Amino acid sequence: MGVVSKIVAALSRAQSEVERLELEVARWEGDARTKREELAALEASVGDVVMTDETGTAARELAVTAMELRFLIDGAHAAARAAERKLRDARWALMGAQAAELRERSGKVRVEAEGRQAKVDELRAALVEFEGGDWRPWDPPSGSYGMVVPPPLKTPQMFAEADRLDREASALEEQVAVERQRASVRIPTARIDWRPSHSSGQSSAAFSCSVTEGLGSVVFELTKDGHPIGAVTLPDDRGNLGSRDLVDLGGFGELLEVHCAGEVLASLRTEKLTLGPPMPASGPLLAATA
């Protein structure tokens, strides 16, 4: 297989891989959307089921189904994100193949143009030797009357086409380089989930943080009223990109903040709740995110 055939084959494979992964991302996102709709319908029916379920069996079955659906939703989201990363890499590969194909076309045009230019130079030298003086392409003087258009010269046009192809290839290569650089930077996110206590002055908070794939490490610091009370470095020793830790709090009216690289990613001020019945152990979390 010649060089040209290899380049064309690589371009075709790259295009097919992009199309395949686009379908895979759409499939996982559709699966997650379907499971979310199932979960929403299940949660909407919980009240009626619990009211008519004297033994609690149906309610427990619904709880198991809900947990399974949430697990499947998380799994579909994770699969979609993994497919998106593969799709990103495939698109870079496709752009690289397109740039290579443009370079190959440019090289062919430039080689032909150089051959023509050598012939033009040879003929021009023969004219100079035979007739004397220099010979140049005709360029009508400015101010000439009428529609005077010099005939186009093929060789300069071929050099211009080769330059255009090279510029297109360079633009694709530069775009890939920029996108790779952006993808190599880890993006941090953080969250504080607070569970207040009605019966005592004690409460707790879940300190969650995560980073995207990339290079280097990121340090998150949790502060209470401006004083550090915990820190996490990601990825950790096991390569995990996320972390969640519980922090005991002394009371209410405290300001919790998550700091990273000099910025506050999440903050929450705890407040004492004085109305309403005690919150059950499985009650919802009060959350603050950036």
Topology of helices and strands:
Elements: H1 3-52, H2 57-131, H3 154-183, E1 188-195, E2 203-211, E3 218-224, E4 227-234, E5 242-249, E6 255-260, E7 263-269, E8 286-289
Antiparallel strand pairs: 1-2, 1-8, 2-5, 3-4, 3-6, 6-7
Helix pairs in contact: 1-2, 2-3
Features:
290 residues, Immunoglobulin-like, 2 domains, four-stranded antiparallel sheet
3D architecture notes:
The protein has 290 residues and is of the alpha+beta class. It has 2 domains: 1-137 and 150-183; 188-289, Immunoglobulin-like, CATH 2.60.40. It has helices spanning 3-52, 57-131, 154-183; strands at residues 188-195, 203-211, 218-224, 227-234, 242-249, 255-260, 263-269, 286-289. The chain has a 4-stranded antiparallel sheet with strand order 5-2-1-8, with no helix packed on it. Strands 4-3-6-7 form a 4-stranded antiparallel sheet, with no helix packed on it. A hairpin with a 2-residue loop joins strand 6 and strand 7. The chain is elongated, with a radius of gyration of 34 Å.
What distance lies between the first and last C-alpha atoms, to the nearest angstrom? Answer: 55 Å
Strand order of the largest sheet: 5-2-1-8
The biggest sheet amounts to: 4 strands, antiparallel
What is the typical, i.e. mean, pLDDT?
Answer: 81
Please write the string of helix (H) and strand (E) elements: HHHEEEEEEEE
Number of domains: 2
Approximately what portion of the residues adopt beta-strand conformation? 15-25%
Global morphology: elongated
Q: With helices defined by DSSP (H or I, 4 residues minimum), what is the helix count?
A: 3
Structural class, from helix and strand content?
Answer: alpha+beta
